[in-house]
Structures are given as C-alpha cells and as structure tokens.
Protein: NUCB2 protein
Amino acid sequence: KAEGHIEGEKVENPDTGLYYDEYLRQVIDVLETDKHFREKLQTADIEEIKSGKLSRELDLVSHHVRTRLDELKRQEVARLRMLIKAKMDSVQDTGIDHQALLKQFEHLNHQNPDTFEPKDLDMLIKAVSARYE
Structure:
C-alpha cells in the first residue's frame, strides 16, 4: 500500500515483444502461486535462473500447479499448431516438414506436448534470455 499498489491489484507489465509473451506471463503467474517456488525465485540470482538450476525446483511444486502448467502447455502447443496450419495454408505447399516448423519454437519442448516438465521451464528461460542478450 505504501508503494501505491492496492493488495491483490494486478500490476500491468509492458509487452516483452516475444511471440510467446502471454504464455510466458501465464507460466510465471502460475509458478508464483506456489509458495516454495516463489521463495526460490526471489532468492535466486540471474545465473542460477539461466543455468537451469531453478528449473529443477519444478519437481517440488504442488500437484495443482503442475496440472495448471500442463494445461497451459497444451494450450500453447495448440496455438502453435494453429500458426503452423495458417502458415501452411498461406503457402499451399504440401512438402512442409512439421517437425522443422515446430523446432522454430524454442520456448517449449514440442516432443512432449502434454506435460510441462523442468526441461520446458529451462527452455522458456533460455529462450527469453537469448532474446534479451
């Protein structure tokens, strides 16, 4: 309240410019609902986050958080598939390699479209870091 924020009020963050910005924000929001993970995130330095050490903490979050992350990942995979289909439709080329297209999306593990694993968090962190470096 002293900072001018009302408790529970959502602070609007500027757009990162990433094509997966909404997914990134949703993952962060869900992870921050887990007290243990939020504490680890607040005490971690940037090198721990970039190195993937923080991603290993994903195994310790609650079942509810993991279920929500799985759901977010499935939604993001569906969104990416729609983008691929739209791209295919616009090109009208039947020789498109779907796996090659999916590899363009380095912010998640496309080989496992159903569950959000530590590798997904690590890939998301690395994609954001690479973008801003």
Remarks:
- The helical segments are 21-31, 35-43, 46-51, 63-91, 98-103, 118-132.
